[in-house]
Amino acid sequence: MSAGAPPPSAIDPLGDVAVTVGPPRDDAKMARRERLQVLIHSKSFIAGAIIVGFWVLCAIFGELLVLQDPLASNPLDALTAPSADNWFGTDRLGRDVFSRVIVGSRDIMIIAPAATLLGTVLGTALGLVTGYFKGPVDDVLSRLIETVLALPVVLVAVMAIVSLGPSNITIIFVVGFVFAPVIARTVRAAVLSERELEYVSAARLRNEKTPYILFAEILPNVMGPVIVEFTVRLGYAVFVVATLSFLGLGVQPPSPDWGLQVFEHYGLISGGFWWPVLFPAAAIAILVIGVNLMADGLTQAFEGR
Amino acid sequence: MTRFILKRIGLGLITLWLLSILVFFMANVLPGNVARRVLGPFASQKAVDDLNHTLGTDQPLITQYIDQMKGYLTGDMGRSVSTRQPISDVLWPALAHSAKLAILAFIIVVPLSILGGVVAALKEGSTRDRVITVGGLSATAVPDFVWAVVLLIVFSLGLGIFPSTAAWPDGSGIFTQIHYLLLPSICLVFVLFGYIARMARAGTIEALDADYTRTAVIKGLPQRTVLRRHVLRNSLLPTIAVIATQVGYLMGGLVVIELIFNYQGIGQMIFRAATQKDFPALEAAVLVVGVVFLLSTLVADILYSVLNPRVRLGAAE
After folding, report:
1. CA-CA distance, A52 to A58, in Å (whole number)?
2. Residue A265: helix, strand or coil by DSSP?
3. pTM as predicted
4. Which pairs from B310-315 meet CB under 8 Å and 24+ separation?
5. Is the distance from CB of A145 to CB of B19 less than 8 angstroms?
6. How far apart are CA B12 and CA B14, in angstroms?
7. What is the mean pLDDT of residues A239-251?
8. pLDDT 10s digits, A42-83
9. Nearest C-alpha in B relative to A276
10. Does B156 contact chain A (CB < 8 Å)?
11. A31 CA: distance to closest CA in chain B (Å)
């Protein structure tokens, strides 16, 4: 650091310096610009964004990008190997695997982000409350969170979906509810350190209402961890939704969803028909890795790791 | 120390109790009318009422819950809706099967990922480190069924060196069994390597930076002795904790891998129960998985405190 005025500090031990009330806006703007710089220069974030962007385009334009109807079955051409006509071959009903892989991004690209968003909103609210109040509220909720976390996520989701019946809306709610406790735990940890800071005591002294302190004062200051957690969870959501579809409990036929395609054809591998399985499986892997690369870049930007 | 362990067991029991309520709620309350969900919309009202009566689901919820827990505590898990067999006849052998796969996977993945983590930490920031860390985490992020089908295509269909199922013929010797279990175990290596290596790496980096390591180097100990005596001992502590938390996943989260490799473990049992809407079997199996997870985290916590002199001595004061 070069010579010059020391950075202004709100807790100057020497006393009679003017203390500015309210958040230091210029600092916040600077920090945001700095983070953006880190993001743009982060190779993993850019690579991840390109991959995810590609699948977003496929999800939006879907049928416009492919020459063949992903749902048109043609039993006479079932299970033909990859060729010039069908780049990725055809599946057991003679449908073109290439167009199914491209269009198959749609369901998962809607369900996974929606579920993650729901989980993030619920989890953030839960984390704010448990972190801020400590005491009995925190004890009870933390124990409940611990309980949900004692089961593998996929098991909880399987059980809930069997009880409620599978549909895209059910998956969004179930995955959202399962993620909420995990996100709550991260947010709670961030809130625990924030609540000891001066701006919170200041708001309390000003007699602000508790919801105001939670959502208008503390929430903006824990947005970093919330955003990082959102992207990390998004990767898991793709994982869980694809797994549920693979178990036949997620997206339902005749959707060209990737997990469902693998589910419908994995039994044929030992018969030598690898193409209707390998291509959708690879699509899942590429999407998950893309989301994780983005999460890696965001973590670096926000936590300076 | 004893107080810490007692407190930890107490908390575990509370979590277990809450878990039993959660699982009960999902299996008995969420479906609405249980027998109607089992039999479908076209079954006659009488058939539905009869099934609800046999299952006990026409009783008040509190009575149902107490009856079930009494049964579980005495080892009676009720009967399966689809096969009418006692659930425990299927569940315990399935759990033993799962344990076999879990143990083999652990034997392969634990040394491998600790080695990976330590090797990465010794050259922190190098290409080698990036490859191990990013590669490991990407492998972890990819769903297990994707690894399973890719490995099947490459090693079973392509190279033909592994069978395409994990269900060995009856009466196979231990080496044949291992041969059949190797491919699913390799899937688990892909899934778990990233987690464990990351913990081992973080622990090693911390121990390398610590004052006691610097002292050991300055006083002239050979590098190997420093690594073995000072770094590794400290870096492996957090690794043990994360390994134990994976036991729960291995003993029940393997629904997908057991399904693909047609392996009769508890994961496959849960999948069967789920597709057949066999709520009593589903409930029992999921609860057992939760208990295994709670037990393994309990053991991890206690082991951690026994091995870590700071926690051990701190609690004794």
Report:
1. 10
2. helix
3. 0.83
4. B311/B4, B312/B1, B315/B1, B315/B3, B315/B4
5. no
6. 5
7. 89
8. 888 899 999 999 999 998 987 887 777 777 777 787 778 888
9. B149
10. yes
11. 25
Strand partners for A90: A96
Cβ contact, residue pair B157, A272, below 8 Å: yes
- Contacting residues of B for A249, CB less than 8 Å apart: 274
Cβ within 8 Å, pair A281-B37: no
Distance from CA of A249 to the nearest CA of B (A): 8
pLDDT, tens digit (0-9, with 9 covering 90-100), for A202-243: 998 998 898 899 999 899 988 888 988 898 899 889 989 999
Q: A153 burial class (0-12, 13-18, 19+ CB within 10 angstroms)? A: buried
Cβ-Cβ contacts under 8 Å between A and B: the total is 140
3-state secondary structure of A5: coil
Token pair for A134 = 């400590």
Q: Which helix (H) or strand (E) holds A203?
A: helix A198-205
Query: Nearest CA of chain A to the CA of B229: how many Å?
Result: 29
CB contact under 8 A, A151 and B286: yes
Question: Based on the number of CB atoms within 10 Å of its own CB, is A280 exposed (0-12), middle (13-18) or buried (19 or more)?
Answer: buried
- List of chain A residues whose C-beta atoms are within 8 Å of the C-beta of residue B257: none
